[in-house]
Amino acid sequence: MGFYVNVSTRLRPLNVIGLNSGTSMDGIDAALFSIKPRPHANGDSSTIPALDVELLASTLEEFPSEFRRGLQKLIASGDTSLQRVCLLNTALGEVFAKACQKLIRSVPQIDVHLIGSHGQTVWHAPAHTDLWTVSTSGTLQLGEPAILAARTGIPVVADFRPADMANGGQGAPLVSFADAVLFGADKIATAVLNIGGIANLTVINDRGIAVMAFDTGPGNMLIDRAMLRLYGKDFDLGGQVAKSGKVDANILERLLSHPYFHQSPPKTTGRELFGDPYADALIDETQASGLSSADLVATLTALTAKTIAAGYQDFVSLECKVSRLILGGGGADNAHLVELIRQYWPHEVKILRHEDCGISTKFKESLLFALLAYTTYHGIPNSVPACTGAARSVCLGKLSLP
Q: For 205, which DSSP code?
């Protein structure tokens, strides 16, 4: 099933801030975009709105060090009190507001009309389970939007995932909407791969329609944890450590047997499945068995590359054979990882980066939330049921007025 929306309202140009705090939890990416409608070349107003986007300004608001450590510990352990969750929601709202104020001050000559904030994901549980006899699934993003609106005097659209989940979807991946806006007009069968903590893939067919999107599994998450534990570094620069090591075929085969990799889309995952407890147990086990640190990083890098390529081969290639692969996220800077993806890909494919298409990968997710806020503000459905598994397309997010 393809992705179509009914553009029944008149769009107007807006300057929109997009805010994102990702799995690294080091701070908030804030970017201001000019978003303008443009006429469809074929005059067809039944499809995704054609939008021109320009990055006007950007900034990174780092979390205070003590706050960052506390946030990372809370999310890694999943253990806290209701009081702390309550206060974390408002504290994050203040930090997000500070990032907005910093960005707004940097461009005093530009009016900001709208803010789109993803918040900070603290738990994502898309699979149905029973809670006290009630069947339910859920997702929780914190960062109180009412505080954002009050501190900035600007309307805020936030909390984008629940509306999709309420209609039977996974609440993710959300980025497929932005990918369709940014790359669909080229009418080239394309896979857009973001390698953040988790790797996710969006597939756009040669008609410009997002037909599938899902998380392939760990992106940088396991590699980064191993680098921190074993080398005291945040990441493997350029993949140099992995390149110096040797992949352990037996360990790799065992890791590839994880049920998630064989689950058909739509599917999403995160720290709940492949977070620090999973990584630490693996690191402890392999260190005890005598596997070298470089060999473990090499094996984890191969795991990321293989699951990305296998995700495409197993679930996408028969439906849509892509001719180009567009990379984004921090993993795109890992030259060794990218080369492995090329080797494991089942056929020849042209590999590009977002920057080759005039898009900043650093602020891609900020752009996503700006686009979602913009379209929701205009009443345009912006979820992609073919990618999330929802029953219908809906407007994502909740509006908070100043």
A: -
Q: Please give the sequence-ordered ranges of beta strands (E in DSSP) within 306-354, or none if there are none.
A: 324-328, 350-353
Which residue is it, tokens 């800077």?
Answer: 333
The answer to whether the peptide bond before residue 385 is cis (omega within 30 degrees of 0) is no
Sole residue written with tokens 């009309």:
113
Do the domains spanning 14-174+362-400 and 183-348 agree at the CATH topology level?
A: yes
C-alpha 271/C-alpha 104 separation (Å) is: 33
Residues of the chain predicted below pLDDT 50: 1-8, 41-46
Q: What is the pLDDT of residue 88?
A: 94
What pLDDT sits at residue 25?
75
- The answer to whether domain 183-348 has CATH 3.20.20.140 is no
| Residue ranges covered by each domain of the chain | 14-174+362-400, 183-348
Q: How many CB atoms lie within 10 A of CB 225?
A: 22
Other CB atoms within a 10 A radius of the CB of residue 26 amount to 15
For residue range 84-130, list pLDDT tens digits in order.
Answer: 999 999 999 999 999 999 999 999 999 999 999 999 988 888 888 99
Question: Torsion over CA of 100, 105, 111 and 117, rounded to 10 degrees?
Answer: -10
Residues 142-194 have pLDDT tens digits of 999 999 999 999 999 999 999 999 999 989 889 899 999 899 888 999 999 99
**Quick check: 391 and 378 in contact, CB under 8 A?**
no
Residue 59, beta-bridge partner list: 30
- Please give the Cα distance from 65 to 63 (Å, whole number): 6
Angle at 227 between CA 221 and CA 230, to 5 degrees: 135
Q: Which two tokens stand for residue 261?
A: 């990799």
Q: Pick one of 3.90.25.10, 3.30.420.40, 3.40.640.10, 1.10.238.10 as the CATH number of 14-174+362-400.
A: 3.30.420.40
Cβ neighbours of 357 (radius 10 Å): 16
C-alpha dihedral sign at 132, 136, 141, 144: negative
Cα-trace Rg, the chain: 21
The three-state secondary structure class of 275 is coil
pTM for the full predicted model: 0.82
